[in-house]
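Reviewer 2 asked us to include a model.

Predict the structure of this chain.
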Amino acid sequence: MKAIEFTPEQGFQLTDKTSVTPEPGEVLLNVDACGVCGSDRQIVNGGPPPKGTTFPLIMGHEIAGTIAAVGDQVEGWQVHDSVLVHPFIPCGTCSACQNQQYNLCLRQTCIGYHRQGGFAEQMVVPAQQLIRGSHQLSALALALLPDAFATPYHAIRLTEMTADDTVLVIGTGGLGLATLQLASIFAPKRLGAVTRRSSGVETAQNYGAEMAVALNKQHRATARQIRRWSGSSGVDVIIDTVGTSASMTLALDVIKPGGTITLVGLSDESVPLPILKTVQRGIKVIGSFGSLPEDISMLRQLAEKKQFDPSSLVAGTLPLEHIHQAFTTDRQSGRWVIEPNR
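Predicted model (structure tokens):
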């Protein structure tokens, strides 16, 4: 089979590898589509990989495929089944796992970093990571559900968003645009967006934001504009898909008393928390990491009912041998998707 290996020294290399046979409890997949995540970009751009990652590495954790072979001791799955892959493999024994908070397992491993990912024609996956796919949806649409959509969907569920809320999404990358799409399902009273680049204003509006503003150096002016738009004492719900000191500072400035800020974006930055202001105003700050398998199953059902279109987030498609374009071409709105068997 053909696969793309990555090392920091040599970049991407197209290789021919021996096709693998699934062990007991595993299945062999033909990879139909695999999304390119922002975390993949960070590693390619020199950022630190998850602890335990070794090179050469076959990345790719947003995977839709078709079962090609089933190993022993696998029940409920058969050849030709359409499947999605939940990429986070929990340890199963820690306190988080015992409480079924598998996404918070500190010993979890991730497909595409700790074991072979989806930038290959075939891959072996533990059967416990499989989620039923759909013949009603394209592989391109399915591939983006396990991460690009499941991560913000899990955050929205934690936030308990309602139709009475004024909702602000910070960030218009893949996660931010997916959040806008999913938030629209809940039909909030108002839906707005903040982008770090001026080109993101129109993009956010195309994804459902009635108001979009570019965050500039005049922070107070941006905050005033958002408060005027909210039409009240502030915004009810903020979902921050950026996760920097600047985005959090803005969120604290425009959230209403009793409002909720849900952090999804990851960075190593810190921001001073105004404790008196936060406590007196009853502001809730929630951290949301990853997703659970049931999030992905719910998203598949919503997409099948045409409540949102995950394929609209696809910025473009590439075969394996042209994967470098997804990392070197100027950023487009949405996600690149690799089609290994194209």
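The domain at 2-133+309-338 is CATH 3.90.180.10 (Quinone Oxidoreductase; Chain A, domain 1). The radius of gyration is 20 Å. We have added this to the supplementary material.
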